[in-house]
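Obj.: predict assembly geometry.
Materials: sequence records (below).
Method: joint structure prediction, all chains together.
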Amino acid sequence: MTPPPDTSGTTDADPGVPAAISDLIGKVQYEIAGEFPVEQGYIWTSCSSVENGNPLFWDEAVAEELTGGPIAPPTTLSVWFRPHHWAPGRTEQALPLQVHFDLKAAFDLPEAVMTDNTIVFHEPVRPGDRLRTHQVLRSVSGPKTTKLGSGRFWVIDVEYFNQRDELVGVESYTGFGYRRDAA
Amino acid sequence: MSAGTAHPLLGDVHEGDTLPELSYDVTATTVVLGALAARDWRPMHHDHDFAVNRNGTKNIFLNTPNQAAWFERFLTDWSGPEGRLGRMKFRMKGSVFPDDTMVLRGTVTSVGTDDTGCGWVEVLVSLTVDDDLKTDCTARIALPVSAGDNPWARKGDQWKP
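Observations (raw structure tokens):
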């Protein structure tokens, strides 16, 4: 059984996309380190929010036996990069998926939703890990109209690494930035 | 394979098997707790007025990372802690709001091993409200191929998610 084809290296832009945007496709942007180490308390908060009783996250003996110690739920990957809502000295709210917000601004699209999300999990994330990440714009569509409004779709990859430079995961987001059509 | 408490080995699982259904009554607390657990401070996940008057939705709604956490919980409730997620792809077709009863159902679509001997199961998971599909998810999860096998022990080129 082979894994699904990896299309993360593909890039695409509709011919109508401005050069300032299409030039960014495939380029690494926003290399950042997480603002805080992976922490056990937040692991439990995440599990609690969905009533996840997997003993891997609650029973030290099970975690030691299976994973050599505690790990974070794989789907918490993005949690460790979401900035504090406020921090000393910060004058603007930091945004967790900046390329997405850059595209909203570039196309003057005030609203946006995420429509597709693919997550590939590699090395487990552990309490105390300091993760870093970067974002890569993969594609931007031409103008589209949906029931939400008129706008554009785009695909952004977020790649995550631990302090040992091991790949811990890749998330691929499809976003739709739009302007609500006049009623 | 149907509902049960024993954790499946790869040989126990067959294409077409169904996973135990999960039904959950969503409240505003579910939505807000899920957003904050994901450190997602965006107002459409906690501010009713913003969600309705800015986003044009009928209420606050579950965010994407929290839906991923629900899918993970659903899959590992079935697989047990030995199950190791390799990949999830999901598509949101509609939002999940407070007062919805969301139902997660899963069907095994393929079973096999890769060239390293790792056992893989692919599951198609649906999240519905009143039988209306809100999100579908294709998940690839590694299961032990034998009692002594542990997918979590795989590293480097022995792990091909």
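Conclusions so far: The beta strands of chain B are 22-25, 84-92, 101-113, 119-129, 132-143.
To do: check interface contacts against the pulldown list.
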